[in-house]
Structures are given as C-alpha cells and as structure tokens.
Amino acid sequence: MKWIELIVVRAMDNQHKPVVRQLVNQLIQNKGPKGITAATLYRNAFVETDLGIHIQWEVDGVEPSKSGLGIELAAALERFGRIHHTIWVAD
Length: 91
Prior knowledge:
With 91 residues, this protein is of the alpha+beta class. It has one domain: Alpha-Beta Plaits. 26% of the residues lie in helices and 38% in strands. The protein is built from two helices and four strands; from the N terminus they run βαββαβ. It has helices at residues 17-30, 68-77, and strands at residues 2-11, 36-43, 50-58, 81-88. A four-stranded antiparallel beta sheet has the order 2-3-1-4, covered by helices on one side. It is globular and about 40 Å long. The model has no long low-confidence stretch (mean pLDDT 87).
C-alpha cells in the first residue's frame, strides 16, 4: 500500500528551518527505513514559519500508520512550535 506521512511545523520564528532541513536531508541521504520512496521538505507559500515534511511510503501488506521515524521526528520538532502529524492515502 502507498501513503504519505505529513508532519507540519508551525513555529514562532525561523530558527527551526536549519534543523528541519538537516533532519530531512539525513532522511533522504540515508534512504531511511525500508518502504520510504521519497522524503520532501516544503515551505508554506504564505506563512514563512510553516514547514511541511512529506514522507512517501510504499509497503506491501501493511496498513498506513504513523511510523516510528515520523513520531520521533515530530517529537524532536515540538520544541520549535506546533506540530500536525497525519497520514494521507490516495482516494
């Protein structure tokens, strides 16, 4: 099954951006856990302190859920602001 794990950070300032970029770059370079097909960092076009991390998964025989990696990433980013962590599947 394919799904996207989405982690959005809404911070008070931009101090979090270098840390988030570094974490996502490490994820992309290390290829992360088996099943990750892509990891992309987005910024909100209108709110400069919002960043979105999209982790694309494809794992046969597994129901979509928040990954251990996503949970750890969201927990690490909580110190910068509000976190929204969700799972999206194609309809």
